[in-house]
Write a structure and sequence with these properties.
The chain is mainly α and 133 residues long. It is built from five helices and no strands.
């Protein structure tokens, strides 16, 4: 499993480097660096802005005594999208843009919830709800 992860990450970085090389030859090195700097700034802004938004939504959910599972998964996807924008490269930018689109993000969240539910059922986890009063 660890070898697969290392192979995937290595392939990802090699594709990113090849993409940067191709784009720099297409539009020039200065414009490529400028695009990467703009990506980083957008990613930092996204992490900062969406982070506060998610915290507000989670607090609201907790205040009315609801579990904020959907809000947390949505926030994790947006945070990951921001991190992908900070990573230099255009393949990560495409993945980030897909995560920023609500359609793809909600499809991913549905798959994550299905995977988590299946994992909890296979490992025989049980949750007990405690209500005071």
């Amino acid at each position: 499993m660890l070898r697969k992860i290392i192979l995937i990450l290595l392939s990802f970085f090699l594709i990113e480097i090849a993409g940067l090389y191709f784009v720099s030859h297409l539009i020039g090195a200065a414009y490529t660096v400028l695009l990467l700097v703009i990506d980083v700034l957008i990613g930092l802004f996204l992490i900062w802005h969406q982070g506060f938004s998610v915290v507000r939504h989670v607090r609201k959910q907790l205040r009315i005594r609801h579990l904020p599972g959907e809000a947390l998964l949505n926030g994790i996807c947006l945070l990951f999208a921001g991190i992908l924008l900070i990573v230099p490269g255009f393949l990560s930018d495409i993945a980030s843009i897909l995560l920023l689109l609500p359609y793809f993000r909600h499809r991913l969240i549905r798959k994550i919830k299905f995977w988590l539910k299946d994992w909890f059922n296979r490992n025989k986890f049980s949750f007990i709800a405690y209500r005071k009063g």
